[in-house]
Amino acid sequence: MLRELRKKIIKKKDNKSLEDFLGKESRKYYVETHYKNNFLYKYLYFLRTKGADLNAFFDNEITEDKKP
Q1: Same domain (yes/no): 1, 27
Q2: Of 20, 48, 56, 65, whose CB is crowded by the most CB atoms within 10 A?
Q3: How high is the mean pLDDT in each 10-residue block of the chain (68 residues)?
């Protein structure tokens, strides 16, 4: 699921930036194949099923990170 989403969103030329972000290429494979075992995924999934607006949360975090 995550792999297909990544391939739709990230162009092949930008794939290197994802690997730089994750630290190494093997992490990309691990995250894409084992994300359902991750406690953060389970936590966010739970919040989303209860109606949490995760997009607003992440938009706010991104905005905060961009402030000097």
Answers
A1: yes
A2: 48
A3: 82 77 87 92 95 93 84
Most distant pair of Cα atoms in the chain: their distance: 37
Q: Which two tokens stand for residue 36?
A: 């359902």
CB 47 within 8 A of CB 55: no
CA distance 65 to 59: 10
Give dist(CA 33, CA 23) in Å, integer.
17
Contact 31, 2 (CB under 8 A): yes
Range of the domain at 65: 38-68
Q: Which two tokens stand for residue 32?
A: 């894409």
